[in-house]
Amino acid sequence: MVVSLISASQALSATPSGGGCGAAGKWVICEVDDDAATSGSNSQASDSGSGSASSKPLCTVKKLDPQPPEGSMYWKGKSPKDGGAVYERSCLTGPGTTLVYTYFVADDAANIPAVDPAVVARQAVAKMQLSGPDIASPRANGKYVVGVPMWMWVNTNPTTFGPNSASATAGGVTVIATARVTKIVWSMGDGSAVTCNGAGTPYAASAGMQESPTCGHTYARTSASRAGGRYAVTATSTWTVDWQVNGGGESGLLVETRQSQMPVAIGEVQVVR
Domain extents for the chain? Predict the structure, then answer.
């Protein structure tokens, strides 16, 4: 933890290391330049929903309660009798995204941004470490044939399918968020896309050559002409995140997307006479 004292003007205009801040309405939103995201070994992460896709909220400002006693260094030579109040600005800009605290005195509390619960909700989502679908089928070493229905499904766990819950606190506001995958869009590599509203149905030998009842695709051409002789299949999951301020009050919805890829070889049956 790092603590420093700054002036009110510095508090509202200073730029944390690695990014910038902007005041909007009643809150401060700060973001960093990198777009690193946590994902599985074969998955890619991307964000959507409210706010910038690459934004990472860092800072909140709150009024100290109780206020420091007269003569405290936090008043920076001023007195409570002069009016104004001492505020705390906390930013996740320290090493390893640890909190850095700064303190300043402001005369007009109405001009000090308060924390936005939606920003805190995104901090909760970051803790979930959501990743792309854990593809069970099709498999990279599987054997698939033109004209034979392919069944697609994914393994389910909290980080790849949900439900996944986490909470975050900033500026005295605690938000609880719960994320679930609501659909998976499969780009099959042959120009077609399949939307599945669930994890899919695992194949059973008793199904024979029937089509999957929930999520499947039938290839019309082999993958022989594709790079490496395989189709590049991409599964994109849509995460719906419901969040609410702890204790009731404001609530909202966020949407996140994550991707996983799998190369799939499609051959054809050769008839020998």
Answer: 2-114, 129-266
